[in-house]
Design goal:
heterodimer; A: about 110 residues; 11 strands; globular; B: about 120 residues; mainly beta; seven-stranded mixed sheet; four-stranded antiparallel sheet; about 0% helix
């Protein structure tokens, strides 16, 4: 299976703290994307980083990509209770087919 | 961003019946749509790639005769779960890529929760 691994599987932090999630994958990629999913809902696209990029920012989100290690990280700074959700990385290998990671369930408490 | 809708959002059916799920791109034309299924607290698994005007491409292990996909227009793909059984109960999500978009972003529908009794 090409499915990526994410860690941690679950993360619980307090509001205001930073949350870091990691994603590892197995084969070369065109790009890597991070998505958010609230419980029982669809996916919301957060950020896309191409294989020739190393870091990208969007608001409170910071994504890094290390193609030599086949890994990526998502940092959410100054977390809020509304950030509580599951976060998935997805790798685009060929023809825009996405392979999703196992996901990290983030719980942000007040 | 682009909008993808799914209908119905939730369906409960008896074992042996067939269920059709629609996926629509509302403000763009999608030559390719994707169908995923997701079990509780698990990741999304790609089932098939739906191509407008041609046959769908199924992932390994997905029964094409059980999960019928029709992509009859550039804005609509349907997934029909035939002779559904309790093990088909799952969350089904579609996505579409906007070929006119600036990035390779896929836009996801809100999902359809299927419960087979």
């Amino acid at each position: 299976s090409q499915q990526g691994e994410e860690d941690p599987q679950a993360l619980s932090i307090q509001e205001g703290e930073n949350a870091t999630m990691n994603c590892s994958y197995k084969t070369s990629i065109n790009n890597l994307q991070w998505y958010r999913q609230n419980s029982g809902r669809g996916l919301v696209h957060l950020i896309l980083i191409r294989s020739n990029e190393r870091e990208k920012h969007s608001g409170r989100l910071r994504v890094t990509l290390d193609t030599s290690k086949k890994s990526s990280s998502l940092l959410i700074t100054a977390s809020r209770a509304a950030d509580t959700a599951s976060y998935f990385c997805a790798t685009d290998h060929t023809a825009s087919k996405l392979t999703f990671g196992t996901g990290t369930r983030l719980q942000v408490t007040l | 961003g682009a909008v993808v809708s799914q209908h119905p959002s939730r369906v409960i059916c008896k074992s042996g019946t067939s269920v059709k799920i629609e996926c629509r791109s509302l403000d763009f034309q999608a030559t390719t749509m994707f169908w995923y299924r997701q079990f509780p607290k698990q990741s999304l698994m790609l089932m098939a790639t739906s191509n407008e005007g041609s046959k769908a491409t199924y992932e390994q292990g997905v029964e094409k005769d059980k999960f019928l996909i029709n992509h009859a227009s550039l804005t609509l793909s349907t997934l029909t779960v035939t002779s559904a059984h309790p093990e088909d109960s799952s969350f089904y999500i579609c996505s579409a890529r906007d070929p006119g978009g600036l990035t390779d972003t896929q836009y996801f529908g809100p999902g359809t929760r299927l419960t087979v009794l």
